Amino acid sequence: MGERFYGVQALRFAAATTVVAAHAVDLAGTRLGLATLAGDGPLADFGAVGVDVFFVISGFIIATTTRGQAGVEAAGAFLWRRFRRVAPIYWLLSAPILIGMARGGTLTPDVAAATFLFWPFSGLEMTFPALGPGWTLCFEMLFYAAFGLAMAFGRRVGWRLVGVYAVLLVAGFYVAAPVLRFWGAPIVLEFLLGVGIAGIWRYMPRSSGAWAVGLGLVALGLTAVVGYGRIDGVDALNDPATGMGRVLIWGLPGALLVFGAVRMERLDRAPGRVERAAAFMGDASYSIYLVHVLVIRALGRLFESGVVAAPGDAVVASTVLVSLAAGVVVHLWVERPLLRLMTTSRDRLSPNTPSS
């Protein structure tokens, strides 16, 4: 499985950038009280859709890179690769915020559990980890754990996941329990959409890729114009009905974009400069996604101090650019060395070690 999907890499980078942009708009508008082109309408938080695209991509990549693997040993190797890829850099970048919370007396057991154990539901409402975007990693790790467990029991992983999750999803609509708010959260469907794409894209006509991208962009464009209700906020995580709305309004169009990017990929030719740049920025997208929170905290203090004055859109643009640059630096000088440090000789020989 040596395939490299450059379109998916570009989509990962775009998804990370939209999330950063949404938080930059929030910094300028909510925290600093500055006017921006996004205003107070749907565009202000529209970038949150990047998370949904991320989840679909994650499902696709995991299903693709583990194709044909099964058994306890394969499952263990898969879980170790995912842990070392996600957790160390996340905990490292969470450290400054954790230290500040501990000093201020605001570090609670449920926040610690969400941060270190990836368990965000100590009650019926979600507890966010110390590093805000870490809430998405709680669902990522849930998906990895479920996928690894399904691998341990043999092939046909996708069908096992769908069957078990369907029960949890339905139960979550009728029973208010922390474990069902987490395990049965509708947003988990977006990972399964990615798994489905991995199973069907090879059998679909190439022309369907362009149609899928077009439909996905139109659907997302409509939500950016007419609105999307409360699906961008915590209600989508605490309330199953709102969560299902997010899957339908953002998850399905996101899946169309991922499918289109995969189906339009030309795997029979060498990548050019654009594709290689997309691959690099896609690899850096995880660091960008994590570190931009720290960048926004620092820039927020700088702008609030009055040392630097700028209009709202300049704040947004500079925040996005600095976040991207910081993410690339962290990717090159922190994330990659950590991965090399935790990579065993057996991992280096494995052709299925995923880069995402």
Please write the string of helix (H) and strand (E) elements.
HHHHHHHHHHHHHH
Sheet having the most strands? none
Question: What is the terminal separation in angstroms?
Answer: 14 Å
Percentage of residues in helical conformation: over 70%
Radius of gyration: 20 Å
Mean pLDDT, rounded to whole units?
93
Note poorly predicted spans.
351-355
- The portion of residues forming beta strands comes to under 5%
Q: What shape does the CA trace take?
A: globular
Number of β-strand runs: 0
Total number of helices:
14
Class from secondary-structure proportions: mainly alpha
Give an overview in words.
The chain has helices at residues 6-31, 49-65, 72-104, 109-116, 134-152, 157-174, 178-183, 189-200, 207-226, 235-238, 240-263, 273-305, 312-341, 345-349. 72% of the residues lie in helices and 0% in strands. With 356 residues, it is mainly alpha-helical. It is built from 14 helices and no strands. Residues 351-355 have low confidence and may be disordered.
